[in-house]
Amino acid sequence: MPRLPVPIRRPRNLIQVPAVARALPWRRLAFLHGSPEEWAPTALAAAEEVLPWVPGADYDALLAPAPEPGDGVASLRAALAEVPPATPVVLYERDVPVWPNLLVHDGGDGAAEPATPAEGLRAYRSAFRHGGRGLAEAYQVLDARRLDLLLSGRRPPKRGPLGDLVHRRFLVTAHDHQRALEAVASRPGPDVLPPARRVLVLSPHYDDESLQAGGAMLAAMASGAEVRVVWLTDGARGVPDASPEESARIRRAEGEAAMRVLGVSDLHFLGAPEERLRARGPWRRRLHDLIAEFDPDRIHLVWWADDHVDHYEVSRLLRAALPTGYGDVTLAVCGVWAPLPGRALLPLDAGMRRRKDEAVRAYRSQLAAVDYLRVEHGLARWHARDRDGADYAESFWVLPAADYLAAFRASGADRRLWLG
């Protein structure tokens, strides 16, 4: 369905920043599609009553797991048809990540290793507003009428209940995210990461390469593959107390140190301005030439729905820079700031886990602000939830470049118009 571009003020970094609370504002909760106890303990602890949902029962808000596209969405929409339109509906994360407008933090300042996949997901979510400390639960909160519109593929109107929690930026980007999930579901890929002879890793910032694909690079090199890393932005805004020039120098040195840990020596620096990455610029031609010269058979990147403006722009840049004839090249796509529902899992053994951790520790300037090591452990723990014998895993959506770009187009998110 063709859509006109929807303009949004260009964000400084994160596209959507959720509000923070210590509890949900409702005390009598009903739930459907399974108990939320394991996945939403902080929110439930403040409730006076939590009961299974029965049509027509009296409650303040309805809790449900974020639905998987297809049957999950259909089942939730059928339930919403029996709910008063203004009822607050709180989607929590279990098998599918949400595009959150609310974080509920447990108030802790600990950095303990996540013990379960559910705890891992909450440790990961603590990065958004709490520096990777404690545990945070991510929720998407909408009234029943607007949630039904969102799940049907339509963008809900701004007018409605829930006040400042549901604003225009959230509604526009939540619509993008829901359509992105549908596009991903329509193109399932393999459940294992296929072998490759030459692996190219596109990293929006210094540290993204280790967070998204540290294990994949180690596995590729262990099998004899060549690995090339391309950093797209200059790192000039990454160290708050340093000048742009000093910040860029620090970030580049940290990236080089991380790659020495992993054993990658084929490194390239495109130098696009951090937080201003675009498809147009001298870096487009340089990326085109690097791809054509290296001739990769697998390219790693973050998906378009990752919750950072530079991460989003990677897909538009790749589309502009990909040489003719590379539509069949395999992409291995993941999420750093917005989890991508996993397909191909790469379990991390003890040796891979240790070396990936060491690479992440090389980014001392970033760890000073956010405990990315714990955050990544949390996400990897959640990804490994269905893999017997694995405590941690990297997760990728694997598909040909042409199919990925078609899904990007189908989501409508490729038409995002940033203002400023």
CATH architecture of the largest domain: 3-Layer(aba) Sandwich
Radius of gyration (CA) equals: 21 Å
Order of helices and strands: EEEHEEHEEHHEHHEHEHEHEHEEHHHEHE
Name the CATH class of the largest domain.
Alpha Beta
Work out the helix count: 14
The parts where pLDDT drops under 50 for at least 5 residues are none
How would you classify the helix and strand content by structural class? alpha/beta
CATH fold assignment of the largest domain: Rossmann fold
Terminal CA distance reads: 27 Å
The total domain count is 2
Taken as a percent bin, the fraction of beta residues is 15-25%
Properties at a glance:
7-stranded mixed beta sheet, alpha/beta, 36% helix, 2 domains, 16 strands, globular, 420 residues, Rossmann fold
Question: Could you please describe the fold and organization of this structure?
Answer:
This protein is of the alpha/beta class. The chain has 2 domains: 7-185, no CATH class; 198-419, 3-Layer(aba) Sandwich (Rossmann fold). It has helices at residues 41-45, 71-80, 117-125, 127-130, 144-151, 168-185, 208-222, 244-262, 282-294, 309-321, 350-361, 364-367, 372-383, 401-411, and strands at 7-9, 19-21, 28-31, 49-52, 61-65, 88-92, 102-105, 136-143, 198-203, 226-233, 266-272, 298-302, 330-334, 344-347, 393-400, 417-419. The strands form 3 sheets. A 7-stranded mixed β-sheet has the order 2-7-8-6-5-3-4. A 7-stranded mixed β-sheet has the order 11-10-9-12-13-15-14, with helices on both faces. It has a two-stranded parallel ribbon with strand order 1-16. Helix 8 (244-262) links the parallel strand 10 (226-233) and strand 11.
